[in-house]
Amino acid sequence: MRIGRIIFLVKPFPAEDPDALRNTHKVALWSTDGQSRIRPRQTAGLTIGKAAFRLQGSSRELLMNLWIRLLWLLLTARKRGHLDLPRESSLLRFRVWPHDLDLSFHLNNGRYLTLMDLGRLDVMVRSGLWREVLRHKWTPIASAITIRFQRELRPFQKFRLETKLLCWDASLVVMEQIFIVDGGARDGQVAARALFKGGLYDRNDRKFVEIARLMSLLGVSEISPPATPEVEAFLHADDRLKQAGRV
């Protein structure tokens, strides 16, 4: 089951406890096909392995930090200007704050994926696609992600996230997202590089929205560039993993 909204896993509790999620934040969970929603009260019975989890007070500060970054992105989107897909890339600037750190005192591995969500959201908002997403109630779905960590991002280090559309097929796109050190002696060095595959899911039609339709809504008549060897390897590995999951 894929978690499509924010939930912080901190402390295990018995799955049969009906009051386990009392006084916690509301969360929304979606299945991998984007169709089935689990209401907050139902999460008391959700198990991962043999344990279920609940929100704790310490995670609320982290939640606020994520909301602040999200609000900043939305409020400054107009200032960053319109994004002309597929030729232009999104560029977001961040800094590593203390609540971003793990026990090794560098940017938490999980935080990379969270920030990548913001990069893709910036692409949708600034390209104008987000209006259609809201109007049709489409759901963004991540199908596969691979990331390679090359250099650590240390406390208070500035960095930028570049998000670019690489190629697409009938219903899914592949995007590249790169974390780059911004300033200091390591300025311009790549900290991490990721490839993302996903699309917009129409829960009414129970299928992914065709990319041709999305391009048409944006007034774009581009043909997908050929996949690079790295993208081909990524797609091949994802297909093999998908086939293995069907055994």
Describe the structure using short key phrases.
247 residues, alpha+beta, six-stranded antiparallel sheet, two-stranded antiparallel ribbon, globular
Uncertain residue ranges: 1-58
Rg, please?
A: 19 Å
Shape: globular
Into which percentage range does the β-strand content fall? 25-35%
- The SS-based structural class is alpha+beta
Let me know the largest β-sheet: 6 strands, antiparallel
Helix content: 25-40%
Mean pLDDT, to the nearest integer, reads: 80
Strand segment tally: 10
What pattern of helices and strands is seen along the backbone?
A: EEEEHEHHEEEEEHH
- Terminus-to-terminus distance: 17 Å
Number of helices: 5
What does this structure look like?
With 247 residues, this protein is an alpha+beta fold. Helices cover 30% and strands 25% of the residues. The protein contains five helices and ten strands; from the N terminus they run ββββαβααβββββαα. The protein has helices at 57-80, 109-127, 129-136, 211-217, 229-245; strands at residues 11-13, 29-30, 37-38, 52-54, 90-95, 139-149, 158-168, 173-181, 190-202, 207-208. The strands form three sheets. Strands 5, 6, 7, 8, 9 and 10 form a six-stranded antiparallel β-sheet that branches. A hairpin with an 8-residue loop joins β8 (173-181) and β9. α1 packs parallel to α2. It is globular and about 45 Å long. The protein starts with 10 loop residues before the first strand and ends with a helix. 21% of the residues are buried.
